[in-house]
Each structure stands twice: as structure tokens, then as C-alpha cells.
Amino acid sequence: xxxxxxxxxxxxxxxxHATVLRENDPENPQExxxxxxxAGMYAERLSRFREVEDGLCFGRLDLDTGERNYIGRLGxxxxxxxxxxLLMDWRxxxxxxxxxxxxxxxxxxxxxxxxxxxxxxxxxxxxxxxxVTAARGDRPSSSLTAEATLFAALDxxxxxxxxxxxxxxxxxxxxxxxxxxxxxxVVQGGPGTGKTAVALHRTAYLLYxxxxxxxxxxxxxxxxxxxxxxxxxxxxxxLGETGVLLATVAELYPGISATRRESPxxxxxxxxxxxxxxxxxxxxxxxxxPRQPVELTVEMEPVVLDKTIVTxxxxxxxxxxxxxNEAKEIFVREVIAALARQMADRLGSHLxxxxxxxxxxxxxxxxxxxxRTLDExxxxxxxxxxxxxxxxxxxxxRRATPKLSDEERAMLLRPKAGGWxxxxxxxxxxxxxxxxxxxxxxxxxxARQRRRELAYAQGxxxxxxxxEELDPELLRATDIVDARLLADRHEERRFETTAERAAAxxxxxxxxxxxxxxxxxxxxxxxxxxxxxxxxxxxLVGDVAQTGDAAGTSSWGAVLDPYVNDRWRLEQLTVNxxxxxxxxxxxxxxxxxxxxxxxxxxxxxxTGSHPWSTRVPGAELAERVAALTAAQVEExxxxxxxxxxxxxxxxxxxxxxxxxVPDAATxxxxxxxxxxxxxxxTVGEAKGLEFDAVLVVxxxxxxxxxxxxxxxxxxxxxxxxxxxxxxxSTDLPPSLTGLRPRG
Length: 743
Ligand SMILES: Nc1ncnc2c1ncn2[C@@H]1O[C@H](COP(=O)(O)OP(=O)(O)OP(=O)(O)O)[C@@H](O)[C@H]1O
Known about the structure:
By secondary structure, this protein is an alpha/beta fold. The strands form 5 sheets. The protein has a 7-stranded parallel sheet with strand order 19-20-18-21-22-17-23. Helix 12 packs antiparallel against helix 13 (324-347), helix 16 crosses helix 17 and helix 26 (581-594) runs antiparallel to helix 31 (709-717). It is globular. It starts with a helix and ends with a strand. The relative contact order is 0.10. Adenosine-5'-triphosphate binds at residues 150, 153-154, 163, 165, 168-170, 173, 189, 191-197, 543, 546, 577-578, 688, 690, 718. Keywords: ATP-binding, Helicase, Hydrolase, Nucleotide-binding.
């Protein structure tokens, strides 16, 4: 019945979509725009109906009032029966007991039913009786809800794409998902505790609950890398939500594609909060005072631009606290005023009238040589020019970074050409803020366009006039419309979704921002994100024990206090749904080595498969890893295998594995990286992902590879849902005693 209703809605939307496209043959841009809006709306509705097809209805609540509510991915109503609810959206308040009711606190629920479907067929039904009196003899209650459905989901082979957990959200997760939209919410939790899942379901919940507010300003979900974003991109559509912008920090500056590579050390320096001062200093460094007086001739009169004039003008411009490009106006005005006074004095100011002084100023303003000189002293700058000049000039760099060591400065130095790195993006953003808009070119372009439109409109009217000349009695076109009005009507308006408009606008501010793997963000990246969300309605999820980036954080307070003081709230997730008990026991020792105060999340599953290690000769490492990978592929059947290596071994191990498993993928980037049976990755690239089986190569090298080597090792060990093996040629790190050596 529910699928029948869904089909009817789908048919209706598809019909309307086709009608809009067929019947509206837009005559002018306004009509075209209106048609695009309607067509966009129906297309979005259609895609939403398509996305909720799988598992449309996954639950039922039998209430003590005798009512029976079905719970599903979206709300469906019976049009023929006063819109009585047929299916309740999981986010509706009345659906909440589906996730929170327990035997101790049944919230009016007698029975909760979990329904598992494949395509449109019900495959399993799992009932929980919550009324304790009625439940006598039933199985003992556990802290998990929907246990059977949950375990079935957790035991499934991984597909390389994250699935939604809407049918099995657990109580501690539900509380976070439905937590208030206001303020900054930090969700701290160990690996596999569902932080990513919770963040995405919370996004869907907020969009449902605050649809109007969020539709206008949009929602941004930030992830650590493009592979991760691909991993999660299907979750929100499957929850009926399209139109959320998913991006990495490096993608948040429109027009910049940050693909240049640099050392982790250079990226760490660029991520430091003090770089904000460096950018500010680099800008000030471009506001010059001439060493020697500059002599110019304006309208045959000599003028001298000396140090005092420029210094005073610069001080006034700086004091205005306006961004550099906007403050230029003040600088220019001040210099011109001073030079006008100079000229007037020479000509004898007592002889001049008021108008004369204005004329002198106008002459100065129009003088190209003076303009050129002023442009040199206070150049109009783009963020790109500022930073590429800075990083390619040892002198500029030295002046802007007095606190860096020579060694650190050398790491930042690079040739101008070659593009931008991800760590440059927050610096470009900072520079854009401090430089302000230089919209003169855009304004000129607009004015030119407008003139063209007016001229065209005028031409149209003239033609109409000519045609109408013969019949003076008739009302003429020019009686009703003038060129300006006609041009207005012709102005193109392009239809774009909120997410598209937001993505193209650096100064866009979002209604809500979600950051996943938030521990990886540098101080500069935080500055940038905070600017994107002045309301500070944010959800930040992460694990300070998994910080791999040297510029990342080990304390939420340190990150957030500068922006919101202590006005942020912390929620913790404590149950690990991914990593089985056996693997977690090994990883927990590494966690203790990171910080004995940190507590590992407790795993819900046991697999009976113990993590193993095998030592091989150094010269055979890549080959042996390849052979073991092939064996692992056999073992996991349909599942996915990841080989996690230190960066230095990636290429060698990658090609050895490729020789044995030809469809294996290596490294980040390619679309096959997630869905190949085997993927060879560095730990950084595997962040946030999961696989059925994982082989970790040379852990001692992972450990030694960075200042946060232990954190990286912890991340590597916690990626597997079923099996874990470690292959090494050098001694194992002392924290890996829990592995079972294998011949
Ligand atoms: N309530 C749930 N029902 C079913 N599966 C769940 C539930 N919670 C989490 N999972 C599953 O557990 C796995 C780990 O979840 P997720 O990736 O969100 O964890 P995480 O905390 O972000 O991990 P990490 O810190 O390692 O990135 C995923 O496969 C997710 O689907």
C-alpha cells in the first residue's frame, strides 16, 4: 500500500515535470526563469521519491492507545481520508519513541517492530515487546535497540559507500541527532562510534525540523578529503535530502582548485593561527612610502610627492580600518588633497577661488603618471597576487614572518607558478577578508552590459515606432514602455539552487555547518569556517585521539574558546559499531600509549577472528604483502580489503599488489578507490573509511612517519569491520603486543 502511494506521487510529479517542460515555451527570460524553478522543484521531488525507494518503511510502533504508526524515510498521507498519516517520517517528533523507548521507559509503546525489506519484499520482521508485563518470557533486554537488524547491518560486507542507519539509530545517537540547532555542538567519540553517521542524520533532522530557515541559507558539510566525501555522498539523498553542499576545506574558495602538493611541515606552518598576522603584515608591506621624493609634472606644474605626504596619507588610510583595497580610496584622496594644497600654495592660494581648488584636484586625479605612482605605493591586490608574491620572494617572506626560523621560512618558499595547495586556501580566504573587494572591474563590466542592454532596448523601440508610424491613433509601444523598463525585463536571471549559489560565493554564510573529522582542521581553517557561519550553529564531530594532521588539534577547548568562549556543548559516543572486540583490544593499547587517560569505545561485536602479525624479510616486503592480500581477498569473498602503508611504501606496495590483483586501486582520487575489491592507501587517505579486512604494512614506519604517528597507527588499526593483519620487516612497536604472530 505504501509503495502504491509512493508510485502515485512519483507519477504525479513526473507528469507535472513533463507538462511544465512541454507547455511552457518561455517567451522571455522571466518566464524561462519561472519555468526553470518549477521544473527544478519537480525534478528534485522526483529524485527524492527515487532515493527513498529502498527501505521505504522500516518500522512500526504499536501504542498503548491502540494506535499503530508506521515509520519510514518520509511522510506519506492518505489524500482520500483527510490526509491521515500512512507513514511517519522518522524525524517527526511522534516517531522518536522508535529510537528511544525502552522496557524501563516505554513512552507509551507496547511493541516496536523492525521491518527489513529487500526491494519491495519484506525479508524479516523483528519485534520488541516493551510492555514488561506482556514481555514475560521474552528475551532479556539489552542496551541496544533493534539488535537483530543492527547486527545484520553491521555484519554485511562493505560496499565502499556509507549507508544510512535510519532503521537502527541507537539511543545515545538519537539524542545527538535531535539536539538543538543553536550553538556549537561537539561530538567526541572513538573510531566506529557512528560520528559520521550521526552527523549526517543530524543534518537530515535539522533540515526537516528547520526547513524554512535552512533552505534559504543552506547547509554545509565539510569532510577531510574528496574520497571521504564520495564515501558519504549517498547518505543524505537516501534520507530524502538533496541540496546540501559537501566540500573539503580546500574546495571552499570559489575558483581555486588546490591540487599543488607540499610537505606536511610546510602545511603545518601555514595552518598556524599566527599566519593571520603574517598575512596582515604581508599586506602592510605592500603599502609603501617612497625613499626619495617623487617629482611629477601635472598640467605643466611641478609637484613633489614626498615622504611626509605619503606617510600621513597612509596613516589616515590605515586608521580607517577598512580593508586594503577599500582603504586605497582614502590614501589616494589624502595624497591628492595634499598635492592640491601644494600646487595652490605655489600659485598663491589667496588668488584662488574655491572652484579653482576643485579644478586642481580634478587635474591631479586624472593625471596618469600620478595614478601610476599611487598604484605602486598602494597597489590594488588580489589574494592570489598577494600570496604568490609573498611565497616566491625571500625578502617579502622575511619581512612578513619575523617569528619564523630561517628553516621554516625556507619551507614556505616556492616558485610563483604551480597553483595552490590545500593549506593555501584558508590563507587566501584570510587575505580576501583583509584586502576587501576590488569590484571596480566587475562594476565596469556591469555598467558596460547595462549600456548595451539599454541601447538594444532603444533600438527595439525605434523599430516599433517606425512600424507604427502609419497609424497615429493607436497606442504606441513607447507610450507604455521606455528603454529602461524594456532592458529591465530582458535582464537574464539564472535559476540556481541554494547550494550552487553558496558554492560560487566566497562570502556566503550558511545556516548550519557540519564538520566531520574536525580534529584535522588547522587554526587557519577554523578561522575560515567560522566566517562561513556567523550564527555559530555548528555540529563538529571528531576524535582527538585520531588527529593525524600536524596542524590538527588535541583539544576542543583550544580550538573553540577563541570563537565562542566556553559556550559550546560536548556530547560523547561510547559504543563502537565497526571494530570487533578482538581488534579493539589491540588498538586500545595504542590508545593508551597516546594518552593513558583516553578510554577506548566498547565494541558491540565479536567475530572470533584474532588480529595477526607476520614478519617478513625487508627485501620481500612488497611481494609478501601482495600475496597476503590475495589470500585475504579470497577469505572475505564479496567484501573489501584495504592495504594501509606508510607514504614512502605506497607506490612499491601498490604496484606489487596490482601485479597480483589487477583490479586493485592505489592511492586517493580515482573513483575506483572506494569500490575496488582491494585498495592500497596511506593512513591519511583511509581516514573515516572502513573495509571488511585491513592489512597494515610496517607499523614502525607509520609510527616514525610523523609527530602524530601513534594516532595514525590507531586510525589504521580501527578501519576493519572483520579482520586485521599486520605485515612487518622491522620490529613491531611496543604497543602492538596484542597481535598473534603467524608464520
Ligand atoms: N546505529 C547504527 N546502526 C547501524 N550501523 C551503525 C550505527 N552506528 C554506526 N553504525 C555503523 O558503524 C560504522 C562506523 O560508523 P561511522 O563511520 O559513522 O563512525 P565514526 O565514529 O565516524 O568512525 P571514525 O572515527 O573511525 O571515522 C559505519 O559502518 C556505520 O554505518
